Amino acid sequence: MKPITLAIVAPCFNEQEMLPISAPKLIGLLDELVIDSKISPDSFIIFVNDGSSDSTWNIIKSLHLSDNRCRGLDLSRNVGHQNAIMAGMDIAVDGPDPADAVITIDVDLQDPLECIPLMIDDFYKGFDVVYGVRASRNSDSFLKRFSAESFYRLQKKLGVKTIFNHADFRLMSARVIRELQRYNERNLFLRGIIPLIGFPASTVEEVRAERTAGETKYTLRKMLRLALDGITSFSITPIYIILGIGICFIFVAFAIMIYVLISLLNHSTVPGWTSLMLSIWLVGGVTIASLGLVGLYVGKAYIETKNRPRYHISGYLH
């Protein structure tokens, strides 16, 4: 069997500390895979510069000069992790040297490189998608581990089809990526879209390592935003929950009305400033939160109707 052309897509955002460490490891992995006849010598790495404000792009240019298998995709501005991954995959399958399969991995290499040969083996067995799934989250803090696992469970409850404990470390065949390109959402949540495509898929267990340099660029705010995108882009269950809460409040209002009428008839009314204010704030808070959630869905629909490009390419080194 002819070895496949593999592209490794590694999004970068302000990774000047991590790139000099991770790039040699990725290049060494390509060499090993070529020697083992698992991939073609034409295989390459695409470092996607997602609008970095440090010297990340200059490092990528230096890597390209020293080894042309290190390619660089420079986006005109920061478009976010998911769009950066999509940009790299698009150029990998539609660029000058189309790849047969693409592996996406964060440049911090917390996802173990040892899993990549296993993913390629599964690809040769006929699997179009191979997910890297965490065997454990011992390297995460308790808060991050608890919040992440709770998020996956919540998604399942809300009917969003995702792979439990899978992030964005995966292998995909070129035909899956071309099917993925037909999904034109501006608010990308790849972990939810890819399982919808439905091609043969498998999983490879991984043990995530500690970051060796720099700091994670995935802040709590970004993780919460991604989680919210993951829920609101694939499920309308939250709107039904709001409807249920509204109906419950109507019943509570009727119960309070009956209580007030009985109190009036018994001449036992007591000025209830505290309970009144509590009720106003509670109902007002739920109302504002409900409007905000509904507004989020309307806003997403508004953004999608514009059909603007997900990203703009400033330069490509190949």
Quickly list its features.
eight-stranded mixed β-sheet; alpha/beta; elongated; 8 strands; 318 residues
Structural summary, described in words:
This protein has about 325 residues and is of the alpha/beta class. The chain is about 50% helix and about 15% strand. The protein is built from ten helices and eight strands. The protein has helices at about 20-35, 55-65, 80-95, 115-125, 140-155, 175-180, 190-195, 220-230, 235-265, 275-305; strands at about 5-10, 45-50, 70-75, 100-105, 130-135, 165-175, 200-205, 315. An eight-stranded mixed β-sheet has the order 7-5-6-4-1-2-3-8, sandwiched between helices. Helix 1 (about 20-35) links the parallel strand 1 and strand 2 (about 45-50). It is elongated, with a radius of gyration of 25 Å. The chain starts with 5 loop residues before the first strand and ends with a strand.
- The overall average pLDDT, rounded, is 83
Number of strands: 8
Q: H/E order of the elements?
A: EHEHEHEHEHEHHEHHHE
Shape estimate? elongated
Strand content: 15-25%
- By DSSP (H or I, 4+ residues per run), the number of helices equals 10
- The N- to C-terminal Cα distance equals 27 Å
**Unreliable residue stretches:** none
Radius of gyration: 25 Å
